[in-house]
Amino acid sequence: MIITQEERDQERALFESERIRVPHLFNREPMIDSDEYLRWIGIEVVPENRPLGYLRYMPQDFIVEEVSKTKETHTIAVDSLFIAKLAEGSTYYADLVKIGASTLDIITQLAHLLRIEEKQIGYAGIKDRLAITSQLISIRGVENDTIFRTLDEENYFLKNIYRGKGAMANGDLFGNRFLITLRTTNPLSPSEKKHIEDEIKEIRQYGFWNFFYTQRFGT
C-alpha cells in the first residue's frame, strides 16, 4: 500500500486535532527496546544493525482485527449498527471496535452502561490497549435492544449487532489479522530498504518468531 503525501498531511492534521480533543488517549510511556533486557528474559533472536523505527506512534499504527472460527474477519470499518441474522435467542452478538483501552476496560464500562454484570459479556480474547482493534463479543441479560442505540462513547462503539444463541468463550476464534505500521524519522537509505525487503522475503518463506518484546508466544 502506497501512502501519498496528501494522505500523510491529512492523517497528521486529523490526529493533531484529536490529540488536542482527547489528549489522554495519546499519552503513554515510551518502550525502550533494550537488547540486553531481551536476552536476559530469554529472547536471543536479536539481529544487529536494525533500522530505528517507531512502533505504535499513533493508535492506527497497530490494527488488530479478529478472525472467527468461520474465517470471518471482524473489521474496524464502520458498518451498520444492526444486521439481519437469526432473530431468536437470548444473546446479542456485536463487533466491538475500540481504541486506547483494553478489552477488559471496555467490558467494565459496557456492563455498567447496559446495567448487567461483566460476566454476562463474553469474548474470545483480550485485545491490545495501544491499538485500534475489533472483536466479536456476546452480551446476555439485555431485554431491549434500544439501549444499544443510546451508546455514545469516545473510545469504542458496537456494530453489526444481532440476536442469537449461546455465548462467546475464551479461545473462540481462528486468529487475528494485524496491520502494523512502522514509522521512521528520516527516509530509509537504499541499503536499509534492500535489507528490509530481503528480510520480508525470508519471513514469507520461513515465517518468524511469534513474540512481541516481553509479550512472548501469545497465550
In words, what does this structure look like?
- The chain is α+β, with helices and mostly antiparallel strands and 219 residues long.
- The chain folds into two domains: 15-53 and 184-216, no CATH class; 62-175, TruD, catalytic domain (Pseudouridine synthase, 2-Layer Sandwich), CATH 3.30.2350.20.
- It contains four helices and eleven strands; from the N terminus they run ααββββαβββββαββ.
- The strands form three sheets. Strands 2, 3, 4, 5, 6, 7 and 8 form a seven-stranded mixed β-sheet that branches. The protein has a two-stranded antiparallel ribbon with strand order 1-9. A two-stranded antiparallel sheet has the order 10-11.
- The longest helix has 17 residues, at 5-21.
- The two termini are 30 Å apart.
Give a quick summary of the entry.
With 219 residues, the protein is α+β, with helices and mostly antiparallel strands. 24% of the residues lie in helices and 24% in strands.
Helix content: 10-25%
Shape: globular
Distance between the termini: 30 Å
Domains, number: 2
**In terms of structural class, how would the helical and strand content be classed?**
alpha+beta
Using the 3D structure, state the CATH architecture of the largest domain: 2-Layer Sandwich
Strand fraction = 15-25%
- Give me the count of strands: 11
Q: H/E order of the elements?
A: HHEEEEHEEEEEHEE
Tally of alpha and pi helices: 4
CATH homologous superfamily (4th level) name of the largest domain? TruD, catalytic domain
Assign the CATH topology of the largest domain. Answer: Pseudouridine synthase
Largest beta-sheet characterization: 7 strands, mixed
Low-confidence stretches: none
